[in-house]
Predict the 3D structure of the following.
Amino acid sequence: MTDHPMPEPLLSITDLRVAFATRGGLVRAVDGVSLEVRAGECLGIVGESGSGKSVTFASVMGLIRPPGRIEGGSIRFGGRDLVGLDPAAYRRLRGREIAMTLQDASTSLNPALTVGTQITEVLLAHAEDLPAGHGPRRRAARQRAIDMMRLVGIPAAEGRLDDYPHQFSGGMRQRMMIAIALSCRPRLLIADEPTTALDVTIQAQVLELIAGIRATLGMSVVLITHDLGVVAEYCDRVAVLYAGQIVESGPTAQVIAAPRHPYTAGLLRSVPVLSDLDRPIQPIPGQVPDLVDLPEGCRFLPRCALAHAACHAAVPMRGLGAGRAARCVLAEAAP
Amino acid sequence: MTALLEVTDLVKHYPIDQGLFPRLLGRPAGGVQALNGVSLSIRAGETLGLIGESGCGKSTLGRAILRLHEPTSGRIRFGGTDIVGLDAPGLKAMRRRMQIVFQNPYASLNPRKSVGEILAQPLRLHGLAKGGELRARVGAMLESVGLRAEHAARYPHQFSGGQRQRIAIARALILNPEFVVCDEPVSALDVSIQAQIIDLLDRLKRELGLTYLFISHDIAVIGHVSDRVAVMYLGQIVESGPARAVLRTPHHPYTRALMSAVPRVDRGDDRAERVRLTGDLPSPLNPPPGCRFHTRCAFATEICRTTPPALLPLDDSRMVACHHFPVRPA
Ligand SMILES: Nc1ncnc2c1ncn2[C@@H]1O[C@H](COP(=O)(O)OP(=O)(O)OP(=O)(O)O)[C@@H](O)[C@H]1O
Ligand SMILES: Nc1ncnc2c1ncn2[C@@H]1O[C@H](COP(=O)(O)OP(=O)(O)OP(=O)(O)O)[C@@H](O)[C@H]1O
Ligand code: SF4
Ligand SMILES: [Mg+2]
Ligand SMILES: [Mg+2]
């Protein structure tokens, strides 16, 4: 199935570089990231805190502000180049075609406006298929808002339209954010840690919801998370980020069954697994490198048990066939 | 087998500000029923894992045991002493033996004090060391949590989250306590760092013969660190027993739902077989009558809506509070 000629992916990022000028020096937050999201697929992005997950997709959304700067690379979405797109075109794109739910739901809803106002505003600004005329338009937007809230499982949606965000639980706020993000039926949903702050039972509800809507609307999803279990259960493909670079990518099941980068393998050994409680948890020693002062060679080298001389030179991503790639000199060797 | 810690029928209600809060939430005034009749015991040298969703009362229980919160009622005995009845000097002496590591390594360390001062403070407070001996003990403690003695001169902001949690652990252990409440000690950390801290806590426990109450909402973590587990829902324990037994064959519908909701790298394609929980955790301001879990339970019947199920022993090691599970022979 990997040999079919592929149509152009919905999103393709090539050699993206994003840096922040800080007092401590230039923080190279994203350093040569390339990835693709195809129509209808779910791509998982995993990586530790600070590895560049949010910055990569903030770049896609055109949300990098000084002191941050896109220093190079290209971002193509639906055949258009996004780097350097004018702000008005970007705003249209953001509302209608790409939507992102931000990491912190509690700060991304406006506490001073009712949830109903917040969702209808988005609809009035972006939905193309609402009827003409002030009154009918508003009524249609309100009805669509109620439908979206029902879709994300907010009980008695009509009655909750006039509630303020603080009257919702954390899980409901997250679902409300998803409702707003989905209200204009985007082709791509970028969900940045949609469930990190939630309990597992609520997390399961939110993830099932995203998976269900993706199937119904045929939308593509980028799921940013630090939880390999979430990726394993919900994503077709995965990209693993480490210190601003992708170190491994490929179909989720294969990457998890036989990782080709020592960092991915280390992560898998360090998560406790319910079905095998006797397997000891094996930590990865050390910590992530400082993004201001990166070594030239493999960024994982100081923590890697397999490191040798060749790892001190720059290591490019190596294609491994079957849609897989890894940034390790040993990637081709059977693990 | 004697218990080091024995908690009996512990109740903690937080009073509610009668003004704004209930009105904002549209809920009746009254107390937050954070703990409602919790009983448990921990033997010397064991780790009891406490699992449950956010707001179910885990931290309240951990803090009440150390009397960082005054319990509303109930009994807490530690090494034969009644903690609830202790006066201030008695409590101070007891605090040497019982310590706590908090969830958030960013908030729990004073940013204006050097790491050396943070670690020296408990030793000074209890008059246990000064001068060169004090510095030596601080240095040795830092080394035993995987940091270096020179780190004593640095400030918390100069450390990563994982290193700060090591400092917090060092602070808790510097008085040589017997018992430590670990309140979500790894929840704020990255996976690879989580594993380092779990490893450290485990090594220290073996080396120092510690007893832990280990609080977490991550069942896989709990499964790995605990000898026994207790599952909490809305201020009550719904199931308890040896960790392996409970996690291999959970009986209570809530334990089963909780376990089935955990996303797993090894599940394969059987995601569909999950026990799904609908709805949110009810408010502890106004918990449901009967079984507190009945509003989200797929098996609830009339009796569940009216009568609270008692936490009953199943055999000599397990307890379950459910009207229907496990199915008991008539
Ligand atoms: N406005 C900014 N100024 C300076 N540095 C920044 C800024 N925003 C992000 N960074 C840096 O860029 C790097 C990548 O950050 P990013 O938010 O993408 O991480 P992440 O992978 O999303 O992490 P997390 O899991 O914590 O959300 C980090 O080192 C961060 O400190
Ligand atoms: N000081 C306080 N005053 C009033 N209510 C409180 C106070 N501390 C906790 N509560 C309430 O008591 C209940 C139990 O809180 P607790 O912090 O013990 O939960 P938890 O299980 O530790 O949750 P988490 O997993 O989020 O840490 C919650 O409803 C909480 O809002
Ligand atoms: S007592 Fe009833 S409602 Fe409670 S867990 Fe058991 S079956 Fe469910
Ligand atoms: Mg992020
Ligand atoms: Mg807590």
Notes: The radius of gyration of chain B is 21 Å. Residues A 53-54, 103, 192 surround magnesium ion (ligand 4) (CB under 6 Å). The longest strand of chain B covers residues 3-14. The first helix of chain B runs from residue 20 to 25.
